[in-house]
Amino acid sequence: MRKSIATVSLSGSLSEKLTAVAAAGFDGVEIFENDLIASPLTPEDVRARAADLGLAIDLYQPFRDFEAVPDEVLDQNLRRAESKFEVMERLGADTLLVCSSVSPDAVDDDGLAAEHLNLLAGRAREHGIRIAYEALAWGRHISTYDHAWRVVEAADHPALGTCLDSFHILSRASDPRGIEEIPGEKIFFLQLADAPLMAMDVLQWSRHYRCFPGQGGLDVAGLLAHTVRAGYRGPLSLEVFNDVFRQADAGRTAVDAMRSLLALEESAGLAALPETVVPSGFAFAELTAADTEPLTGMLGSLGFARTGRHRGKPVELWEQGEARVLVNTSGSDRRSGPSLAAVGLESADPDAAVRRAETLLAPVVPRRRGADDVPLDAVAAPDGTELFFCRTGRSGHPSWTDDFTPVAARTAGTADDGDRAGVTGIDHVALPQPWHHFDEAALFYRSVLGLKPDESQDLADPYGLFRSRAVAGPGGTLRIALNVAPSPEGEATRSQHIALATDDIVATARRLRGRGTAVLPIPANYYDDLGARYGLPAERLGVLRELDILYDRDGSGEFFHFYTVTVGRVFFEVVQRTGGYGGYGARNATVRLAAQHTAQLGAV
């Protein structure tokens, strides 16, 4: 189906918005009236610019507060409408969006509303224009799509139809199944938007928190399927009011918007994309460091052994159990210290995974590859982290580990098998997101990798609220936590970390303490509260207190975890899960963040 987007969804001037929309591959655009009013371009200029970019002008919007008003107000409204029709003729737009009235002049009279809309449609038809009538969720008298359709049906004019808006319908919990009772030819336009599930005034919710389909909690795919079954064959158009999108780069936002529509068509059963290949786990985590000594010292103290060196690049392989960490000294910033730059994802079909990623507009990362290097493709996540699709040690398939020459395990700063600390693998990684890419990241991991997002959580940080949303594969075999922190400049990067799994956290903690591993100290007040909250036996609580281990539990199991101090931008977490616990110890985040800030202040 054709794809369109409202200019209100993007930042920048009207000219910049049109350029971004075309570059992202859209077929058409809705011109938001304020964007035209504020533009130095004449309507003829906008029409020519859109045509040059291959864009149709699908809709001009909005025309407000028209119907069911006293005669003197109606006369004024018709004069306004004639002015808009003239502008639309100059633009080359043939459909005008009319919102249900919120004016105090409007009266609760469906018959009068239908009479006025019939009159407006007649005037519009003289200009070759159609009227698409939409129910605003906060309309004064008409606030639901089925009510709006009854009025349109009663008006009975060929130039009058309805506009369906997924936010206005789903925010009021209206049943979208009724859409199938509307004749498809009378659905003149379809506007799509998602939103997080929030308990707040619907107007404020609409004006500030809409997002692209797949980024919120509304069933936009279900609504779309009902609309198509009704016979709608017009464009799929995005109309998103969002404070973040209005400040982000228009080109990038437009690409994110197109990705949402591609994934939405797939979810609604309207289009087939390359099959989703859900990663089954972590192949490696790659850290960059100009000065490797602090990082390799930390890895050695955690029980990792340096087991390989890349044949042609300054990259070392460190291993413990199934946990693999690459240390890369090329292209790193000495001032910021070590950082997590890439993640290897175990994939049953790396080529298919890349095909899907490219179809969903994920940028493929260019790689310098030696003649004998194993093929290994990567795409860039929204925060710039490189995601590699790997098959590690699979029989009959090349493995990325073949590019590493083995080195003796007993070298300075490493540990042999007898010195391992009990780490079995990588449990999850936590990646800090730029504040304006948080929703984009949730959609990316859901649509490109097939990971399921948890609900977003706001956690208390010493400087405000710390926002977190985790995505995970089936059974929790792959977990990624996406974080945005409101802390002072540079402090948000402290949320970048690698969580290592163990089967016996007490034994691991004791072993690491004996090796001198620098563990983040936890305040005694935390353990006093922990005892009161969960009623843990005194002996068990004492062990947790002694080893700075934090604790959480839910109806399925328990979670134990502790943290190292931060090295550069990176720290490590060691975790043990029991039963079916699937969380991340979110209630402990406040304690961890405060302890990290305290440690950071002490280091200054």
Automatic annotation (TrEMBL):
- PROSITE patterns, per database record: VOC
Q: Which UniProt keywords apply?
A: Dioxygenase, Isomerase, Lyase, Metal-binding, Oxidoreductase
Cell wall biogenesis/degradation listed as a keyword? no
One molecular function GO term is: isomerase activity
The pathway this protein participates in, as annotated, is: Aromatic compound metabolism; 3,4-dihydroxybenzoate biosynthesis
Give the cofactors, semicolon-separated.
a divalent metal cation
- Tell me the ranges covered by the VOC domain, including all copies: 281-392, 425-565
Where along the chain is Mg(2+) bound?
Answer: 428, 497, 573
Catalysed reaction(s) here are: 3-dehydroshikimate = 3,4-dihydroxybenzoate + H2O
- The answer to whether UniProt assigns keyword 4Fe-4S to this entry is no
Entry EC number(s) = 4.2.1.118
- Binding-site list for a divalent metal cation: 134, 165, 191, 239
Function field: Catalyzes the conversion of 3-dehydroshikimate to protocatechuate (3,4-dihydroxybenzoate), a common intermediate of quinate and shikimate degradation pathways.
HAMAP family for this protein: DSD (MF_02238)
Q: Which family does it belong to?
A: Belongs to the bacterial two-domain DSD family.
By what name is this protein known? 3-dehydroshikimate dehydratase
Say which species the protein is native to: Streptomyces ovatisporus
